[in-house]
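As the next step, I needed to go through one protein, both as residues and as discrete backbone shape codes, included below for the reader:
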Amino acid sequence: MFTSQTSSFQDSIDVEERDDFESEEIAGYSQKIQLNCYYTIYLYQGTSLTLIDSSLPSEAEPELRTYISRRLSKGALLGGMGNIATVELSIPEQAVGCYCCLLEQETSPEQPDADGNGYVICFMGGSEKGLNLFRLELDKYVQGLHSSLQTPELQNLETEVRPYLSQWYEESVMHIYRVVQLVQSNISFLLHAALNHTHVEVNNSDERTKADVSRFIKAASLQGLSQQDTTTASLCKAISEDTHSDLIVDCSTSPPTFSNTVSNRFCDDWIQAFLNAAERCNPFLLRQILENFKLKAIQDMNSLKRFVRQAEMSHYALFRCCQFLQGCGNGDVLLQNVRAEHSDLPEACSIISVLEEFLKEHAQA
């Protein structure tokens, strides 16, 4: 059992050896943080696209406009929903990932014909697969532009719109990289806090760093991924009633100083994968590793829940539970989550109490 479990875990960590992120322009990551990235914004009225601003080379923009027009004619761009694909343009990368989103104008009695009109925002950089990992962040970033596009004739183009569009890659893609670079091997404390629903307080830092850490914790947590809708609510209730201490990150020192730290073998085992990806300055690989980390935690949690159900009827299954917890390195987190989910099932709670006692004795030994 331990052999298969270890093998599965290693498969999760070794994403960089078998994932096609290695086939991207890794040379662009090895020497610098920022790869070439571009933006374009069009005014969309009826069936026509009018260029407002673009960082693309002049010969590449008409190619993008032809592609967008084709997508619009097929109804492939829905208002407020980003679309990601690979486009071939006259740029050094030739083929590049392209995120497109139609921001529709708000209709009013004075402009009843404005329905369907709006702005098309395009972000280009990396690959289609890489951008797909950050779809939610890109959707949110585009929505943040909505209020700035209400100015007549975009008089705020140079002061607001262009600077905002120029920062899409730094703000939507690079936050995980910045956090790993900041905390280095202490990343395991943040991973454990995310899985354990521990509040993280960042002191003596700028607002961007605080936002980066908060977004990392949210991206690494399992909230919203549970099979039962009540799990998150019951878990948060259980955590609030517990005596957990906040994880404190003091950025007045370099590297930052951590207080009230808790980690486990499972989180520690992922440190090197994160550091290796950060050393290559590859934010897409970092995000894939983070997703694999969450996937492995979910798989282990589902395995434990299955063993707990079996242990209610079999002493051997209880023994398998103990073996599993001893081998996975994440027993404290898994048991806490499973206890919250089974809080209304007395038999399951009694099994979990036995397992918690086993873990405590094993740790002392």
About this structure: The first helix runs from residue 2 to 13. The radius of gyration is 24 Å. The beta strands are 38-45, 48-54, 83-88, 95-104, 118-124, 200-203, 247-250, 257-259. Confidence is low (pLDDT under 50) at residues 16-20, 22-33.
